[in-house]
Design goal:
globular, binds NADP nicotinamide-adenine-dinucleotide phosphate, alpha/beta, Rossmann fold, six-stranded parallel beta sheet
Protein backbone atom coordinates (compact mmCIF):
# COMPACT_ATOMS: atom_id res chain seq x y z
CA UNK A 1 0.00 0.00 0.00
CA UNK A 2 1.25 3.48 -0.81
CA UNK A 3 -0.23 6.16 1.41
CA UNK A 4 -2.01 9.19 0.02
CA UNK A 5 -0.35 12.36 1.21
CA UNK A 6 -2.41 14.68 3.38
CA UNK A 7 -1.33 18.01 1.96
CA UNK A 8 -1.41 20.53 4.82
CA UNK A 9 -0.11 23.35 2.66
CA UNK A 10 -3.06 23.04 0.27
CA UNK A 11 -5.68 22.61 3.01
CA UNK A 12 -4.23 25.54 4.98
CA UNK A 13 -4.54 27.69 1.85
CA UNK A 14 -8.25 26.76 1.65
CA UNK A 15 -8.78 27.64 5.33
CA UNK A 16 -6.90 30.94 4.91
CA UNK A 17 -9.06 31.84 1.89
CA UNK A 18 -12.21 31.13 3.94
CA UNK A 19 -10.85 33.28 6.78
CA UNK A 20 -10.03 36.12 4.36
CA UNK A 21 -13.62 35.93 3.07
CA UNK A 22 -14.92 36.09 6.66
CA UNK A 23 -12.66 39.05 7.44
CA UNK A 24 -13.97 40.93 4.40
CA UNK A 25 -17.56 40.26 5.52
CA UNK A 26 -16.98 41.45 9.11
CA UNK A 27 -15.37 44.61 7.75
CA UNK A 28 -18.20 45.27 5.32
CA UNK A 29 -21.13 44.46 7.61
CA UNK A 30 -19.83 45.75 10.91
CA UNK A 31 -16.94 48.08 10.09
CA UNK A 32 -14.63 45.93 12.24
CA UNK A 33 -11.14 44.78 11.20
CA UNK A 34 -10.15 41.64 13.13
CA UNK A 35 -6.84 42.31 14.86
CA UNK A 36 -4.07 39.99 16.07
CA UNK A 37 -1.29 41.03 18.45
CA UNK A 38 1.72 38.72 18.66
CA UNK A 39 4.11 39.03 21.60
CA UNK A 40 7.68 37.77 21.30
CA UNK A 41 10.03 37.83 24.29
CA UNK A 42 13.73 37.33 23.58
CA UNK A 43 15.71 36.73 20.41
CA UNK A 44 15.32 33.03 19.66
CA UNK A 45 15.71 32.88 15.85
CA UNK A 46 13.15 30.06 15.37
CA UNK A 47 10.53 31.95 17.39
CA UNK A 48 11.24 35.11 15.37
CA UNK A 49 10.59 33.16 12.14
CA UNK A 50 7.27 31.79 13.51
CA UNK A 51 6.18 35.27 14.64
CA UNK A 52 7.01 36.79 11.26
CA UNK A 53 5.01 34.12 9.42
CA UNK A 54 2.00 34.61 11.74
CA UNK A 55 2.15 38.39 11.14
CA UNK A 56 2.40 37.92 7.39
CA UNK A 57 -0.50 35.44 7.27
CA UNK A 58 -2.71 37.75 9.37
CA UNK A 59 -1.97 40.73 7.08
CA UNK A 60 -2.62 38.62 3.98
CA UNK A 61 -6.02 37.63 5.39
CA UNK A 62 -6.87 41.34 5.66
CA UNK A 63 -6.42 41.53 9.44
CA UNK A 64 -4.81 44.22 11.52
CA UNK A 65 -1.55 42.64 12.67
CA UNK A 66 0.83 44.05 15.26
CA UNK A 67 3.87 42.64 16.97
CA UNK A 68 5.41 43.42 20.33
CA UNK A 69 9.05 42.44 20.66
CA UNK A 70 10.37 42.48 24.20
CA UNK A 71 13.88 41.97 25.54
CA UNK A 72 14.77 38.59 27.08
CA UNK A 73 15.12 40.17 30.53
CA UNK A 74 11.62 41.68 30.46
CA UNK A 75 10.20 41.41 34.01
CA UNK A 76 6.74 39.97 34.75
CA UNK A 77 5.47 43.46 35.68
CA UNK A 78 6.21 44.73 32.15
CA UNK A 79 4.52 41.67 30.62
CA UNK A 80 1.46 42.28 32.78
CA UNK A 81 1.34 45.95 31.79
CA UNK A 82 1.52 45.08 28.07
CA UNK A 83 -1.18 42.42 28.36
CA UNK A 84 -3.43 44.79 30.32
CA UNK A 85 -3.09 47.33 27.51
CA UNK A 86 -3.75 44.74 24.78
CA UNK A 87 -6.75 43.32 26.69
CA UNK A 88 -8.28 46.83 26.70
CA UNK A 89 -7.38 47.68 23.08
CA UNK A 90 -10.49 47.60 20.86
CA UNK A 91 -8.33 47.06 17.73
CA UNK A 92 -6.95 43.80 19.12
CA UNK A 93 -9.26 40.76 19.08
CA UNK A 94 -6.64 38.08 19.53
CA UNK A 95 -3.42 37.94 21.57
CA UNK A 96 -0.76 35.32 21.00
CA UNK A 97 2.31 34.86 23.18
CA UNK A 98 5.03 33.06 21.26
CA UNK A 99 6.27 30.13 23.35
CA UNK A 100 8.60 29.16 24.89
CA UNK A 101 9.11 32.15 27.18
CA UNK A 102 12.41 32.84 28.96
CA UNK A 103 12.67 30.78 32.17
CA UNK A 104 12.08 33.68 34.59
CA UNK A 105 8.57 34.20 33.14
CA UNK A 106 6.05 31.61 34.32
CA UNK A 107 4.08 30.55 31.23
CA UNK A 108 0.94 29.65 33.18
CA UNK A 109 0.94 33.00 35.00
CA UNK A 110 1.44 34.89 31.73
CA UNK A 111 -1.34 32.98 29.94
CA UNK A 112 -3.71 33.73 32.78
CA UNK A 113 -3.17 37.49 32.26
CA UNK A 114 -4.66 37.31 28.74
CA UNK A 115 -8.38 38.01 28.58
CA UNK A 116 -10.07 34.63 27.85
CA UNK A 117 -12.04 36.48 25.13
CA UNK A 118 -8.77 37.28 23.30
CA UNK A 119 -6.97 34.00 24.00
CA UNK A 120 -6.80 32.79 20.38
CA UNK A 121 -4.19 30.19 21.33
CA UNK A 122 -6.80 28.54 23.58
CA UNK A 123 -4.33 28.05 26.44
CA UNK A 124 -6.08 30.11 29.14
CA UNK A 125 -7.57 27.77 31.80
CA UNK A 126 -11.07 29.07 30.98
CA UNK A 127 -10.72 28.03 27.34
CA UNK A 128 -9.07 24.73 28.23
CA UNK A 129 -11.95 24.08 30.65
CA UNK A 130 -14.56 24.88 27.99
CA UNK A 131 -12.81 22.48 25.60
CA UNK A 132 -12.79 19.70 28.19
CA UNK A 133 -16.46 20.39 28.99
CA UNK A 134 -17.33 19.85 25.31
CA UNK A 135 -18.20 23.53 24.71
CA UNK A 136 -15.06 24.69 22.87
CA UNK A 137 -14.57 28.41 22.19
CA UNK A 138 -10.93 28.78 21.09
CA UNK A 139 -9.46 25.34 20.38
CA UNK A 140 -5.63 25.43 20.40
CA UNK A 141 -4.52 25.89 16.80
CA UNK A 142 -2.56 22.66 16.26
CA UNK A 143 -5.34 20.32 17.49
CA UNK A 144 -7.94 22.32 15.54
CA UNK A 145 -5.73 21.98 12.45
CA UNK A 146 -5.40 18.22 12.94
CA UNK A 147 -9.20 17.84 13.06
CA UNK A 148 -9.54 19.87 9.85
CA UNK A 149 -6.87 17.79 8.09
CA UNK A 150 -8.82 14.63 8.93
CA UNK A 151 -12.24 15.98 8.00
CA UNK A 152 -11.19 17.68 4.78
CA UNK A 153 -9.50 14.52 3.48
CA UNK A 154 -12.44 12.24 4.24
CA UNK A 155 -10.94 10.62 7.34
CA UNK A 156 -13.57 11.53 9.91
CA UNK A 157 -12.56 10.35 13.39
CA UNK A 158 -16.15 9.34 14.20
CA UNK A 159 -16.24 5.83 15.64
CA UNK A 160 -12.50 5.34 15.04
CA UNK A 161 -9.81 4.41 17.54
CA UNK A 162 -7.49 7.43 17.72
CA UNK A 163 -4.17 6.86 19.49
CA UNK A 164 -2.36 10.05 20.54
CA UNK A 165 1.34 9.80 21.42
CA UNK A 166 2.05 12.78 23.70
CA UNK A 167 0.09 14.57 26.43
CA UNK A 168 1.30 18.17 26.25
CA UNK A 169 -1.04 21.07 26.99
CA UNK A 170 -0.72 22.42 23.46
CA UNK A 171 -1.13 19.22 21.42
CA UNK A 172 -1.74 15.86 23.12
CA UNK A 173 -4.33 16.78 25.76
CA UNK A 174 -6.41 19.21 23.69
CA UNK A 175 -6.47 16.98 20.58
CA UNK A 176 -7.64 14.06 22.74
CA UNK A 177 -10.38 16.21 24.31
CA UNK A 178 -11.44 17.57 20.92
CA UNK A 179 -11.69 14.23 19.15
CA UNK A 180 -13.52 12.46 21.98
CA UNK A 181 -16.38 15.01 22.07
CA UNK A 182 -19.84 13.66 21.42
CA UNK A 183 -20.09 15.87 18.34
CA UNK A 184 -19.99 15.61 14.55
CA UNK A 185 -16.42 15.45 13.28
CA UNK A 186 -15.24 13.94 16.58
CA UNK A 187 -16.85 11.08 18.56
CA UNK A 188 -13.71 8.94 18.47
CA UNK A 189 -12.45 6.45 21.03
CA UNK A 190 -9.19 8.03 22.18
CA UNK A 191 -6.14 6.49 23.82
CA UNK A 192 -3.40 8.85 25.07
CA UNK A 193 0.18 7.55 25.43
CA UNK A 194 3.20 9.10 27.12
CA UNK A 195 6.54 8.13 28.64
CA UNK A 196 4.76 6.21 31.40
CA UNK A 197 2.96 4.01 28.85
CA UNK A 198 3.92 0.35 28.98
CA UNK A 199 4.34 -1.34 25.60
CA UNK A 200 3.64 1.64 23.32
CA UNK A 201 3.72 -0.45 20.09
CA UNK A 202 0.86 -2.69 21.30
CA UNK A 203 -1.31 0.45 21.55
CA UNK A 204 -0.15 2.26 18.40
CA UNK A 205 -0.84 -0.93 16.40
CA UNK A 206 -4.51 -0.62 17.40
CA UNK A 207 -4.83 2.88 15.95
CA UNK A 208 -7.15 3.62 13.06
CA UNK A 209 -5.79 7.16 13.32
CA UNK A 210 -2.37 7.71 14.88
CA UNK A 211 -1.34 11.19 16.07
CA UNK A 212 2.37 11.43 16.87
CA UNK A 213 3.27 14.46 19.04
CA UNK A 214 6.29 13.38 21.04
CA UNK A 215 9.13 15.51 19.73
CA UNK A 216 11.19 12.33 19.07
CA UNK A 217 12.43 12.13 15.50
CA UNK A 218 11.41 9.02 13.56
CA UNK A 219 10.27 7.09 16.63
CA UNK A 220 7.11 5.60 15.09
CA UNK A 221 8.41 2.65 13.04
CA UNK A 222 6.71 0.38 10.49
CA UNK A 223 6.09 -2.41 13.01
CA UNK A 224 4.24 0.03 15.29
CA UNK A 225 1.30 0.62 12.93
CA UNK A 226 -1.34 -1.53 11.27
CA UNK A 227 -1.99 -1.55 7.53
CA UNK A 228 -4.39 1.19 6.45
CA UNK A 229 -3.74 3.51 9.39
CA UNK A 230 -4.14 7.28 8.93
CA UNK A 231 -1.07 9.02 10.35
CA UNK A 232 -0.86 12.62 11.55
CA UNK A 233 2.76 13.53 12.30
CA UNK A 234 2.95 16.63 14.51
CA UNK A 235 6.64 16.31 15.28
CA UNK A 236 8.97 19.04 14.06
CA UNK A 237 12.48 18.04 15.04
CA UNK A 238 15.26 20.28 13.72
CA UNK A 239 18.56 18.94 12.46
CA UNK A 240 21.41 21.04 11.13
CA UNK A 241 21.73 20.66 7.37
CA UNK A 242 24.18 22.82 5.46
CA UNK A 243 22.53 21.87 2.16
CA UNK A 244 19.34 23.74 3.16
CA UNK A 245 18.97 27.49 2.73
CA UNK A 246 17.67 27.76 6.30
CA UNK A 247 20.63 25.74 7.63
CA UNK A 248 18.40 23.02 9.06
CA UNK A 249 15.88 20.37 8.04
CA UNK A 250 12.71 19.33 9.81
CA UNK A 251 12.04 15.68 10.63
CA UNK A 252 8.76 14.31 11.97
CA UNK A 253 8.15 11.86 14.81
CA UNK A 254 7.22 9.17 12.28
CA UNK A 255 9.68 7.20 10.17
CA UNK A 256 7.96 8.43 7.00
CA UNK A 257 9.89 6.25 4.57
CA UNK A 258 8.65 2.98 6.06
CA UNK A 259 5.35 3.96 7.69
CA UNK A 260 4.04 5.56 4.49
CA UNK A 261 4.26 2.10 2.85
CA UNK A 262 1.69 0.72 5.32
CA UNK A 263 -0.54 3.75 5.90
CA UNK A 264 -3.65 4.70 3.94
CA UNK A 265 -2.84 8.38 4.40
CA UNK A 266 -0.06 10.36 6.07
CA UNK A 267 1.01 13.96 6.67
CA UNK A 268 4.50 14.91 5.49
CA UNK A 269 6.93 16.98 7.56
CA UNK A 270 7.19 19.76 6.58
CA UNK A 271 3.96 20.57 4.75
CA UNK A 272 1.48 18.69 6.96
CA UNK A 273 0.34 19.92 10.37
CA UNK A 274 2.63 22.99 10.47
CA UNK A 275 0.81 25.17 7.90
CA UNK A 276 -2.55 24.32 9.52
CA UNK A 277 -1.44 25.75 12.86
CA UNK A 278 -1.15 29.26 11.42
CA UNK A 279 -4.39 28.91 9.43
CA UNK A 280 -6.35 27.90 12.56
CA UNK A 281 -4.82 30.76 14.55
CA UNK A 282 -6.30 33.11 11.95
CA UNK A 283 -9.65 31.29 12.15
CA UNK A 284 -9.65 31.75 15.95
CA UNK A 285 -8.84 35.47 15.57
CA UNK A 286 -11.75 35.92 13.16
CA UNK A 287 -13.98 34.04 15.62
CA UNK A 288 -12.85 36.33 18.46
CA UNK A 289 -13.78 39.40 16.40
CA UNK A 290 -17.19 37.93 15.51
CA UNK A 291 -17.92 37.02 19.14
CA UNK A 292 -17.08 40.60 20.15
CA UNK A 293 -19.42 42.00 17.47
CA UNK A 294 -22.22 39.70 18.71
CA UNK A 295 -21.53 40.60 22.33
CA UNK A 296 -21.64 44.34 21.61
CA UNK A 297 -24.94 43.94 19.77
CA UNK A 298 -26.64 41.96 22.53
N1 LIG B 1 3.60 21.49 13.52
C1 LIG B 1 3.20 22.30 14.50
O1 LIG B 1 2.54 23.29 14.27
C2 LIG B 1 3.56 21.95 15.89
C3 LIG B 1 2.88 22.54 16.97
C4 LIG B 1 3.22 22.13 18.25
C5 LIG B 1 4.20 21.18 18.44
N2 LIG B 1 4.86 20.66 17.37
C6 LIG B 1 5.89 19.64 17.52
O2 LIG B 1 5.25 18.47 18.05
C7 LIG B 1 6.16 17.78 18.91
C8 LIG B 1 5.52 17.65 20.27
O3 LIG B 1 5.33 18.95 20.80
P1 LIG B 1 4.77 19.19 22.27
O4 LIG B 1 4.90 20.63 22.57
O5 LIG B 1 3.46 18.52 22.40
O6 LIG B 1 5.92 18.38 23.08
P2 LIG B 1 6.23 18.18 24.61
O7 LIG B 1 5.59 19.23 25.44
O8 LIG B 1 7.69 17.96 24.69
O9 LIG B 1 5.49 16.80 24.94
C9 LIG B 1 5.93 15.60 24.40
C10 LIG B 1 5.00 14.51 24.86
O10 LIG B 1 5.41 13.30 24.26
C11 LIG B 1 5.59 12.30 25.25
N3 LIG B 1 6.70 11.44 24.86
C12 LIG B 1 8.00 11.78 24.66
N4 LIG B 1 8.72 10.71 24.32
C13 LIG B 1 7.87 9.67 24.29
C14 LIG B 1 8.02 8.29 24.04
N5 LIG B 1 9.21 7.78 23.68
N6 LIG B 1 6.94 7.51 24.11
C15 LIG B 1 5.73 8.01 24.44
N7 LIG B 1 5.51 9.31 24.71
C16 LIG B 1 6.57 10.13 24.64
C17 LIG B 1 5.88 13.05 26.54
O11 LIG B 1 5.49 12.25 27.63
P3 LIG B 1 5.58 12.73 29.18
O12 LIG B 1 4.38 13.64 29.38
O13 LIG B 1 5.48 11.49 29.95
O14 LIG B 1 6.88 13.47 29.31
C18 LIG B 1 5.02 14.30 26.35
O15 LIG B 1 3.70 14.09 26.84
C19 LIG B 1 7.45 18.58 18.88
O16 LIG B 1 8.30 18.07 17.87
C20 LIG B 1 7.00 19.98 18.49
O17 LIG B 1 8.01 20.73 17.86
C21 LIG B 1 4.55 21.02 16.11
Amino acid sequence: MVASIINGTEIAAQVKAEVAQGVAEVKQRHGVTPGLAVVLVGDDPASAVYVASKQKAASEAGMHAEDHKLATATPMEAMEALLKRLNADANVHGILIQLPLPKHLNEHAVMERISPDKDVDGLHPVNMGLLLAGRPRFVPATPAGIQQLLLRTGHSPEGKHVVVCGRSDIVGKPVAALLMHKAPGANATVTVCHTGTRDLPSLTRQADILIAAMGRAGSIKADMVKDGVVVIDVGTNRFEDASKKSGYRLVGDVDYEVVSKRAAAITPVPGGVGPMTIAMLLANTLKAAMLRVQHEKS
